[in-house]
Amino acid sequence: MLRCLGEEFPDARAELDFTNPLELLVAVVLSAQTTDVRVNEVTPRLFARYKSAADYAGADRTELEELLRPTGFFRAKANSVLGIGAALTERFGGEVPGKLEDLVTLPGVGRKTANVVLGNAFGLPGITVDTHFGRLVRRWGWTSEEDPVKVEHAVGELIPRKNWTPLSNRVIFHGRRVCHARKPACGACPLAKDCPSYGAGPTGFDEAAKLVKGPEREHILAMVRDR
């Protein structure tokens, strides 16, 4: 399944736009309860206005909230971003730390956010257990754990550490494009022959193919046809 995911999504990455660790950290915080697409619509103006941790720490709350409003829960997210700016400035010299134990001390930052930043901005292995990841690894029988931290550790024992970040991105891609929560595209899934939950969605290719999403759609369908 790991090899198949690699063939399916060889270039999978975090789908949030960023150019440095601070931008990714802020973007991941903003992605809670909304889509990456929506966050990517908001961050160009945000990143142009606030370029450093000190900029966020000194931001005008009203202005910041207005910029964040389209992402939803904008007041809580503004609190987190202001707090992150202050904490980075006061405790980390204005730089995003490259250690999980430091990242999780920042306002609004848990292990999921920390692992996204470590894996995609610092190149350090991390398993990102979002809703897609947890749902799929349970559907595949890799673990029965529900708690994200326990899921992270259980999968980490199955998969070589060097593969943790690409695995996370590929599983999330697969969950968004093929293995949907309510109606997975079983009949058009490259992982079907190894999946213990095969049949949770339509098994006919034509019906299932209609459910496959994303820019990789034709590649995914060709993988199934070629087999």
TrEMBL record:
InterPro entries in the record: DNA_glycosylase, Endonuclease-III-like_CS2, Endonuclease3_FeS-loop_motif, Endouclease-III_FeS-bd_BS, HhH-GPD_domain, HhH_base_excis_C, HhH_motif, Nth
| Domain (HhH-GPD) ranges | 30-177
Q: Does Lyase count among this protein's keywords? A: yes
Instruction: Supply the alphabetized keyword list.
Output: 4Fe-4S, DNA damage, DNA repair, DNA-binding, Endonuclease, Glycosidase, Hydrolase, Iron, Iron-sulfur, Lyase, Metal-binding, Nuclease
Q: Name one GO molecular function term.
A: metal ion binding
A biological-process GO annotation: base-excision repair, AP site formation
**From which domain of life does this come?**
Bacteria
Q: Which cofactors does it use?
A: [4Fe-4S] cluster
Binding locations of [4Fe-4S] cluster? 179, 186, 189, 195
Keyword Cell cycle assigned:
no
Query: EC number(s) in its UniProt entry?
Result: 4.2.99.18
Top-rank EC class of the record's enzyme: lyase
Q: Which reaction equation describes what this protein catalyses?
A: 2'-deoxyribonucleotide-(2'-deoxyribose 5'-phosphate)-2'-deoxyribonucleotide-DNA = a 3'-end 2'-deoxyribonucleotide-(2,3-dehydro-2,3-deoxyribose 5'-phosphate)-DNA + a 5'-end 5'-phospho-2'-deoxyribonucleoside-DNA + H(+)
Cofactor binding mode, per the note? Binds 1 [4Fe-4S] cluster.
Which family would the database say this protein is a member of? Belongs to the Nth/MutY family.
Described by its record, this protein's role is as follows: DNA repair enzyme that has both DNA N-glycosylase activity and AP-lyase activity. The DNA N-glycosylase activity releases various damaged pyrimidines from DNA by cleaving the N-glycosidic bond, leaving an AP (apurinic/apyrimidinic) site. The AP-lyase activity cleaves the phosphodiester bond 3' to the AP site by a beta-elimination, leaving a 3'-terminal unsaturated sugar and a product with a terminal 5'-phosphate.
- Name by which UniProt lists this protein: Endonuclease III
Q: What is the species listed in this Swiss-Prot or TrEMBL entry?
A: Amycolatopsis pithecellobii
